[in-house]
Design brief:
Elements: H1 2-23, H2 27-47, H3 51-75, H4 80-83, H5 91-111, H6 131-139, H7 144-165, H8 177-181, H9 185-188
Helix pairs in contact: 1-2, 2-3
Length: 202
């Protein structure tokens, strides 16, 4: 009974955070709502005894990705009035995408889950059960090729980002480490000898 009550409480807060994420006018508030949604999702993972996934969700997404999002959002000078100019023009497309997503979620929940016991609480695992061990065993045996493919895609994305950042552009200021290390005092400072002068008023 307590597990069911906690599940519905966390799920309700998660839905409220998701609605606040898409309806907030301030991008910083949207990012904070997303942090709250991640926290509630981690709590749901804990109720399902998936402790490793819950900890990874908090450490990776809340601790790293969302902090990066907040820094980017707060450092960029976003013109909100200019962003809202084309809001009504893309409204039909947004409504169409929302309807498709709702239909897909309804298909997964209703049509494909008829035989699943929704209101029954799963039996707890034994005391020596390790969620991390079981996840690693499945990941590196049944899904090892998909795991390696995902790692290759991430590596390719990193290389592509570095290539796009380091490309030669006109007016780009580059840094030459060898010239900075080999610099001499005579190249930076010039001593000028000047004769002393008296003030004309004296």
């Amino acid at each position: 009974m307590i597990i069911t009550l906690l599940f519905y409480s966390f799920a309700a807060i998660l839905i409220i955070a998701a609605l606040g994420l898409i309806t907030s006018r301030n991008p910083v508030h949207s990012a904070l709502f997303l942090v709250l949604a991640f926290f509630q999702s981690a709590m749901l993972w804990l109720l399902m005894e998936a402790e490793f996934l819950a900890v990874v969700l908090l450490l990776v997404y809340v601790g790293a990705v969302m902090v990066l999002f907040l820094f980017v959002v707060m450092m960029l000078d976003i013109n909100m009035e200019r962003m809202r100019e084309g809001y009504t023009r893309y409204m039909p497309l947004g409504i169409g995408v929302a309807v498709v997503v709702i239909l897909e979620i309804g298909n997964v929940i209703w049509f494909r889950s008829q035989d699943l016991p929704f209101l029954t609480v799963p039996e707890p695992h034994p005391a020596g059960y390790s969620n991390t061990k079981e996840l690693g065993a499945v990941l590196y045996t049944e899904y090892v090729y998909a795991f390696e493919l995902a790692a290759f895609v991430l590596l390719l994305a990193i290389v592509a980002a570095i290539t796009l950042t380091m490309r030669r552009r006109p007016g780009l200021k580059t840094q030459n480490i060898a010239e900075q290390v080999a610099v001499r005092r005579e190249d930076r400072v010039r001593l000028v000898q000047m004769e002393s002068t008296k003030d004309s008023d004296q």
